[in-house]
Specification:
single chain, 586 residues, Jelly Rolls, disordered N terminus, 9-stranded antiparallel sheet, mainly beta
């Protein structure tokens, strides 16, 4: 769905001063120190009211938001062919949670064995762009929250393909947001065709030996196709065929030694670098196909997890619906009677609502009270966007011109309230023109020219770090990871300091989160490149991904302003775009 029309609506927030005003107003919302000889001051903002910072594409809404209907639970139907009564229905992808599930008396952990099996049939796959068709989860999870790569879960992600087949991925995540996912080579062919399935977890299963040791030395951590691996093996063993190599790869995948990725540009294989350290395996089988094993990463095996439900829950990224049904169900070896309504717990599973969420930014001033002691803060919803996506943005204060020759200091409080893995955001100093630069190629522009500050992001297996970033030029960007930072809604104090005279005059960044501190030393190349910052505030990250929500309060930050400076206060702008039906464009 092309974004063919973008309109801007000006909204006057419910703040008396803004309701009557011209844009330029006296600077009364913040407190500033007296300018130093070089014009540097420390500005303090408690956000007790809207500071009138500049916002560009930071509030995006749909002009034609659709109404969707979640409609799943127990059904007296027999689509699976196993007799009357089954669980299922129409399940929409949406950030609004929805599930229908059986409570588990004592929450399961990674020290417990558990299993589920049954029959499944797909009645509707969904519609949309490649990779954006319908999807839903079946498995064990925690009812408190789910999210993208669901928190505290072990489940099968069933997702539609545009050729009316369904793919399967195993996803798990700990209660500390450490997650992992592996895709099956299995493709479930055809609509209205029943399939059998089984998923089990054995906490004591150990990885064995390579099924075919010849393959081991050709596998890399980088993605390779079967054809690329075959080309390497054939040099040493001319008699080997491509089918032989594919068989070796399938055996290695079934045993947990390699990973598989199906993408629009092909099928890819990588080596599991931690093999030999694994204990605890998820085993999945469909029909009479191979039993594929997925071992927990070593650091996750001892992490906490609390699985208090088994059932169906929605995939919490917006897009299309999927219609599926399961029957002949056994959970932990016990048959579930579906001939009549089992009266499982339902949340949001039989509702209609206006879907307002999609790949969009929704951050800025907020009258909420997550990060500070009183209402009023900045933050909200941040989506990572592809570099070519024009709907990326920022919310920030004009701080004059500050460079790497200036001492820079900012501090405040933060509360990380919600996060889906593969997400991120930035707080700090940047150049507005460089932030809004147009890119024609689909690159990962995570680190933009002329930016320095705090980056909240991280790999799936960890979750998130509170990191320091310095990027005078994108090719010179440097990030030092700080403490693991979890979206548990806890308030934290933080402090960012840049001393241009430290590190032998090259420059050093020191970041403190609560009682934990770490350093980043700039390189001579970074310092020589220099940087020109003209804004301080929040930006999304221009690298394709998902979403998080985070808030900041009681900020104190360095700016350069002349005596008698009167700031410009900006009105709130909301950008209206057509709802991207069937999935995001970029």
């Amino acid at each position: 769905m092309m974004r063919s029309k973008v309109t801007t609506r000006v909204v006057l927030l419910a703040v008396p001063v803004l309701a009557i005003t011209a844009i330029a107003m006296a600077w009364s919302q913040g407190v500033a120190s007296e300018p130093s000889q070089n014009g540097l001051i420390q500005v303090h903002e408690d956000f007790s009211r809207d500071p009138g910072w500049e916002g560009v594409n930071n509030r995006i809404e749909c002009s034609d938001c659709p109404t969707i209907t979640q409609n799943f639970g127990w059904s007296p139907t027999s689509y699976c062919g196993a007799g009357k009564g089954e669980i299922g229905g129409t399940i929409w992808r949406s950030r609004t949670p929805a599930y229908y599930a059986m409570p588990i008396g004592r929450p399961l952990t990674f020290n417990d064995a558990f299993s589920a099996e049954g029959r499944i049939v797909f009645r509707r796959i969904g519609e949309g762009a490649v990779g954006e068709t319908g999807a839903a989860y079946i498995g064990f999870f925690n009812s408190a929250q789910q999210g993208w790569r669901p928190w505290s879960s072990v489940a099968l992600r069933m997702f539609g393909k545009t050729d009316d087949t369904a793919g399967v991925q195993v996803d798990y995540m700990t209660s500390l947001w450490g997650g992992y996912g592996d895709e099956l080579t299995t493709r479930l062919e055809g609509l209205n065709v029943p399939h059998t399935w089984r998923m089990s977890y054995d906490p004591n299963e150990l990885m064995g030996n390579w099924p075919d040791p010849r393959l081991q030395k050709y596998m890399l951590a980088e993605r390779q196709t079967a054809e690329q691996i075959y080309a390497q093996i054939k040099k040493a063993e001319p008699g080997v065929t491509l089918d032989d190599v594919k068989h070796m790869l399938q055996q290695a995948l079934d045993a947990g030694f390699v990973r598989f990725f199906q993408r629009p540009n092909g099928a890819w294989w990588t080596l599991n670098l931690d093999y030999g350290k694994f204990r605890g395996a998820i085993t999945v089988q469909f029909d009479e196909g191979p039993k594929q094993r997925f071992f927990l990463l070593p650091e996750h095996r001892t992490s906490p997890i609390a699985l208090d439900r088994f059932g169906i829950f929605n995939f919490q990224v917006y897009s299309s619906p999927i219609e599926l049904y399961i029957s002949d169900l056994k959970v932990n070896g016990e048959k579930v009677d579906l001939s009549q309504d089992p009266h499982w717990e339902g949340k949001g599973n039989r509702v209609s609502f206006v879907e307002r969420d999609f790949q969009r930014e929704d951050f800025g001033y907020s009258p909420t009270n997550w990060a500070g002691d009183k209402p009023g803060e900045i933050g909200g919803l941040f989506y990572r966007t592809e570099a070519v996506d024009p709907l990326h943005g920022y919310y920030a204060d004009d701080i004059g011109r500050v460079t790497l020759d200036d001492p820079i200091d900012f501090s405040g409080s933060v509360a990380f309230t919600d996060g889906g893995t593969d997400s991120g955001m930035f707080l700090g100093y940047f150049n507005a023109k460089k932030k809004m630069a147009t890119f024609k190629e689909k690159l990962a522009a995570q680190y933009l020219d002329d930016s320095m500050g705090i980056l909240v992001t991280g790999p799936t297996r960890v979750g998130y770090y509170f990191s320091a970033q310095c990027s005078p030029k994108r090719e010179l960007a440097k990030v030092v990871t700080g403490p693991v930072f979890l979206p548990n809604r806890t308030r934290h104090k933080f402090h960012f300091q840049y001393d241009p005279k430290a590190n032998g005059g090259v420059g050093r960044i020191t970041v403190t989160l609560d009682e934990s501190s770490f350093h980043m030393d700039l390189t001579p190349q970074q310092r020589a490149a220099g940087a020109n910052f003209d804004h301080f505030g929040l930006t999304n990250v221009r690298r394709g991904g998902k979403y998080l929500s985070i808030y900041f309060d009681d900020l104190t930050y360095t700016a350069r302003r002349p005596a008698g400076y009167q700031p410009v206060r900006h009105k709130q702008n909301i950008v209206l775009v057509p709802f991207p039906k069937g999935g995001r464009e970029y």
